[in-house]
């Protein structure tokens, strides 16, 4: 984790182009570390690691408040408009091993858009990539982030329960497979201190549910 007075969580972000993947990383860090903009092509072409400052008031362990640090690895989207699957896979695998090979990875975040339906084959390629990179226990270390929650709310889904009642079987099956580890994210609100704290507490709860286990990425496929 980190020193006795603080905790560090290591996260990696996956997702298709224009799902709000890099914006999610910025929201979690409370910064603008990653380039995020509307574009007719994939914006992120290489892995990039972002670090948050010390965050207080988020977590307590053994009746003691700890400072939290967040490390986020942003990755190229897949499918990618310019890179092949092999290029994305090898780039991400190398970055995971370099940045998290010693301390370990706490969670992989699969970013999807809440304002668009998830069709049967749409997330297949990204999930397959996650499986190849994280191995057979990938479901234990993966959570789903549903971005553009504000647009879903504008469409009449006033809470998470109402949204999920209308969600596709594909999405519901995916959430079941990762043990209901999901969060809704309004990327505009999440940079506000209070909203960001809510999101980070949910992620920490997922880490706690997993007994603070970490995945140790390696350069090899094994």
**Residue runs with pLDDT of under 50 for 5 or more positions:** none
Shape: globular
Q: What is the CATH class?
A: Alpha Beta
The portion of residues assigned to helices is: 25-40%
What can be said about the biggest beta sheet? 7 strands, mixed
End-to-end gap: 24 Å
- N-to-C SSE string, H for helix and E for strand: EHEEEHEHEHHHEH
Mean pLDDT: 88
Helix count equals: 7
The CATH superfamily bears the name P-loop containing nucleotide triphosphate hydrolases
Give me the CATH architecture, please.
3-Layer(aba) Sandwich
Number of domains as seen in the coordinates = 1
Number of strands: 7
Radius of gyration: 17 Å
Reported by name, the CATH topology is Rossmann fold
Task: Tell me what portion of residues adopts beta-strand conformation.
Answer: 15-25%
> Structural class, from secondary structure content?
alpha/beta
């Amino acid at each position: 984790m980190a020193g006795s007075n603080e905790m560090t969580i290591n996260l990696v972000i996956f997702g298709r182009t224009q799902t709000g993947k890099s914006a999610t990383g910025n929201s979690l860090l409370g910064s603008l570390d990653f380039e995020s903009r509307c574009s007719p092509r994939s914006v992120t072409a290489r892995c990039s690691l972002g670090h948050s400052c010390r965050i207080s008031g988020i977590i307590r362990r053994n009746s003691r408040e700890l400072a939290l640090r967040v490390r986020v690895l942003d990755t190229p989207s897949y499918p990618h408009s310019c890179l092949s699957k092999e290029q994305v896979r090898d780039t991400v695998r190398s970055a995971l091993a370099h940045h998290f090979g010693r301390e370990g990875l706490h969670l992989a975040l699969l970013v999807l858009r809440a304002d668009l339906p998830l069709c049967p084959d749409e997330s297949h390629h990204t999930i397959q990539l996650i499986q190849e990179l994280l191995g057979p226990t990938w479901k234990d270390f993966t959570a789903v982030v549903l971005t553009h929650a504000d647009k879903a709310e504008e469409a009449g889904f006033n809470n998470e329960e109402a949204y999920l009642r209308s969600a596709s079987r594909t999405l519901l099956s995916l959430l079941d497979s990762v043990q209901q580890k999901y969060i809704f994210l309004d990327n505009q609100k999440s940079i506000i201190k209070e909203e960001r704290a809510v999101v980070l507490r949910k992620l920490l709860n997922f880490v706690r549910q997993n007994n603070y286990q970490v995945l140790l990425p390696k350069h090899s496929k094994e």
